[in-house]
Amino acid sequence: MPICCGWESEENAGGAVFGGTAGDVFSGASSTSGGMIVGGEAGDVFTPPLVTNDPTAGGAEFGGEAGELFGFTDATEGGAEFGGEAGDVPEFNDETEGGAEFGGEAGDGYGPPVHGEIIYPPGEFTFVAETSADHFVECWGPGGSGLGMVADEEVKCSGGGGGAYSGRTVNLTLGVGYLVVCQSGGSELPSTFEPTVTARRVIAAPGKNATGDLGGEGGQVADCIGDVLFKGGNGAGPTGVPSGGGGGGGGAGSLTDGNDGLPGTNPTGGFGGLGGAVSGGDGANGADAGFSALDGGNAGGGGGGGGTGTTSGGIGGPGRVRITW
After folding, report:
1. From the CB of residue 118, how many other CB atoms can be counted at a distance below 10 Å?
2. Fewer CB within a 10 Å sphere, N or C end of the chain?
């Protein structure tokens, strides 16, 4: 019988339409005809393409065997994803993986770099290095003390000098102890860092105590040891009788010298010198006539001079030692 247009979609005509034998069964989307649709044999079962993101199809999708399990971010697949063995667990921020992550052996411990700072008050101490590395050691000499006046004595009323500054980079060894000596104000003794190797010493000169109506001299660079050096400011005296006390000299900072104190006038005390930048202690102001003076600021400020009358001068500011790594 001739084939007519109305029969082109008839199931029992599928074979003829697609090149088979009349009578073959064809169902356009029937799973039993999959073989013929995609080039297989009649009767083969056709399964639609695997779901791209189906984890159970990972093997087939990425070159493995059908049915293998693939987890894109599953930690248990880390080995396979990153070149190890299946089942290896990658812990990117796990310290025990530090060796492998940073060029060592797997299992090496990874500790973050050690950094810190310590500041010492007056006293004698032992600094034990926590790491073998360069340390920046800074010393401030103590400030000198000022003078007041006792009735019927000659005029004094002058301010003390400011302490000097010394800084140096020193390579220290893990676990080794190093002697630190920080001096009190008015002691006229230097603040020091004393390693076993002399070439690595750090010493900051003190400000001098006031004498008579002359202010104390600031700590001098020539009396220091270090790579970065600044001098302390000089203390000042009074301008006559009666008079306010002279201001103490400013302690040196890590960037600039300390400033000189100003003389006292009648009846007002002179201003203390500002401490150098950064961290220099300010010199204390001189006291007005009839009053005692204040102490110098921390990190080497000179004590102020007391005013004329029965008064006392201020004590110099304490020294300081700071270690940074």
Report:
1. 14
2. N
